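Teaching assistant here, posting this on the class forum so everyone can see the example we discussed in section. The complex has two components, and the goal was to see what a joint structure prediction looks like when all of them are supplied at once.
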Amino acid sequence: MTGDEIVNLSRLQFGLTALYHFLFVPLTLGMTFLLAIMESVYVMTGRQVYRDMTRFWGKLFAINFAMGVTTGLTLEFQFGTNWAYYSHYVGDIFGPILASEGWMAFFLESTFVGLFFFGWDRLTKVQHLTVTWLLAFGTNFSALWILIANAWMQHPVGAEFNYETLRMEMTSFAEVFFNPVAQVKFVHTVAAGYVTGSMFVLGISSWYLLQGRDVGFARRSFSIASAFGLASILSVIVLGDESGYTSGETQRVKLAAIEAEWETTKAPASFTLVGIPNEETQRTDYAVEIPYLLGLIATRSIDEQVRGLKDLYKDNLVRIRNGMKAYGDLQKMRAGQKDAATIAAFEKNRGDLGYGLLLKKYTAKVVDADEAMIAKAAKDSLPRVAPLFWSFRVMVGCGFIMLFVFGLAFYYCATRVADQKRWLMKLAVWSIPLPWVAAETGWVVAEYGRQPWTISGVLPTHMSVSNLTSDQLWFSLMGFLVFYTILLIIEMFLMIKYVKLGPSSLHTGKYHFESTQAAPQA
Amino acid sequence: MFDYETIRLIWWIFIGVVAIAFALTEGFDFGAGTLLPFVGKTDIERRVVLNTVGGTWEGNQVWLILLGGAIFAIWPAVYATLFSGLYIAMMLVLFSLFLRPAGFDYRSKIDCPKWRNAWDWALFLGGTLPPVLLGVLVGNLLIGLPFHLDEDLRPNYDGSFFGLLGPFQLLCGVIGVVLTSFHGGIFIKWRTDGDVRERARKAVSFLGPVLIALVAVAALWLIFGFDRPELTSIAGKGAPSNPMNKAVLAKGPGWLAHFLENPWMLVAPVVAVLGLLFAWILGRGRGDASAFVLSSLGIVGALLTIGFGLFPFLLISTVDPRSSLTLWDATSSHMVLNIAFWITIVFLPIVLLYTQWVYRKLWGTVSNDSILQNTHTLY
């Protein structure tokens, strides 16, 4: 068994590095599509300003993309370095997923990104446009496959435990691919990326407009961003991934925690708008509730129940006891007792083996756990409510503010009065951080809400870690802290510098800071 | 659908192909980083060097990512054991790789000598440290690592970081960086003109004999200085993956005997030596494409020699020979290997097709003039 300190440091490191990586990913997802849209307009209309837009926003994209590449490397290393037992356990399921991601996504985006920047004078218009679209598809395919892998951790379908190899093995690639959680997650995450890209372009364009510089350039960027942003934020909200929380045991636990749904109430459940979740008394103080709404959002029906935490706790007590039996039978089989009766007994409880493993934290043998240990393990099986409750509400709050901003921006663009609405532009500038706040809190909801599991119901987090020493972990943590802090400072410095330079950084001679002939583009 | 034994062998070959593709392509990218301060004396010249690989290094790096991903996917036990056991070393590889994306992309975005010099150092380290560390890693793969699997098949590492840095392994690290610099030098020489080309030629001329001498020393050292374990029995080449169901003799007949038992394997070291030798002979003169093809062949031969030498082992354990991982008992399941095979068969040709198109479009001699003409767009 590995000490708590190793588990906590490993979680801290993975959490921080993944959250950090996720600062750059959504912008990449969104910007590549925005670039493809801008360049499509250029190719269709032949107007130079759209080419300049593609190139300028492309420069900002490049600064961000380099960081995405850098921090993505970390994640690939970390499964093996810090989560060795997890890697052994899931390698079989991740096999075809990672193969697909490598061949379909990573090569596509990374091979074409160079040509996107350096190919302007070497390709025809249509060829270059094709390259840009392929870049956009590459980044989005990458999200698709990694979210299929992630969704399998949330809702492990199409696989079962093999007692001979002591790991999960795939039984159906189709089930893994069409995992309902994966489908919802993919749409939700990439749409959130489009929102991020749109808010970035909208906010910076607004800043140029407020300053009265590069007006033609900024106005066009503003309108593309407002249209794409509005469509995207609507997708994020309407296809919010709450609907994915009805499938899968741990997803249901997560949903109950997000909503601080302590008791199972009669369908359709009411939605707790705000309140103070209280772990001690297992109730939500000062709750403001909207009747029926939760049932509608979560189950998309009026008669299906949302199961409360207290009942989920009772369910898990039963599952832990079944898991103990499964673990006992597994040990017998491994000791050579492979008769039909033992195998049948194991098969019966195999699905709850993971719940038995929760006891490993308290007793290495599992089968000798006492009532107190079982109760503790059942308590472990539910995540803490407050962090999920609040993260979720912050995320949703940001989403609705952005809906307001994009909605008005689009409306005023359509009615051609956007230029006069200086307050809206100021609001857009101040809204730039919102998509990042939403993305990070959304990540917390999805991944913190999965605790205490790395693979829901299958492998507990405390069993997943590598056998490391705390010295090794402190070394790597310090390394990340130093590198990531320095890189972030440099990245922000460059980003701000290039935002301030604006399209003049293209040195076309037409833009603010550089023009004597300064003909504003019509 | 292939039977389990066949598909396991196919995947051993595929992962070898990915490793070779990584060494060939990122090899010259790393080499360009190492040679950067030596063949580029002025800012413009350094930009010349960087832009020989600037448009394509990112795609090349995917071979490394794919290699890591493929090992995770196909040989999960190897991925888990190697990455967690060599924790500090892997973190150092990772940190050194951090220097490259920002280095390439940020360096020329600001016109300030201090800024650019700092990034040149980062790119030098980012091109030099990974091949050194990966060379040390290969050295350790050859002589084995102190690890064992426990009853839950959880990997436990019984050594320390400094235990990886024996003299033989350090020699392998030096070979790693000399090899990438040699290969990178040939590539830079091919893609540039003027002073940069001449300096790259000199580097190739100097590095060639050093490389061949070091490789020869390492080969002799391995043959006469280290035992090679021997697989004596196995549950079955098509049996479920459980490394504990086999027997391994810690001291087998030895490295040379292993090659002599399978004489066709000797093709690999012969190709390696001849490839590098003729790459040097041509590279120090006017040979460009020809020298590059030959140094590539040399790298292919060198990696095949390592793969053949270890076969059927993937990771050798020095403390518990039975825990050693082989391509017969450390793979993913039969079905998964087949699915991943078909995905690869479909997409590999597509990737190669567009990669060569991108290379053709970005090809051409990089000169001081071409940098000056595109000073705001190039790296």
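For the discussion questions: The mean pLDDT of chain B is 94. The CA atoms of residues 40 and 46 of chain B lie 4 Å apart. Think about how each of these relates to the inputs above.
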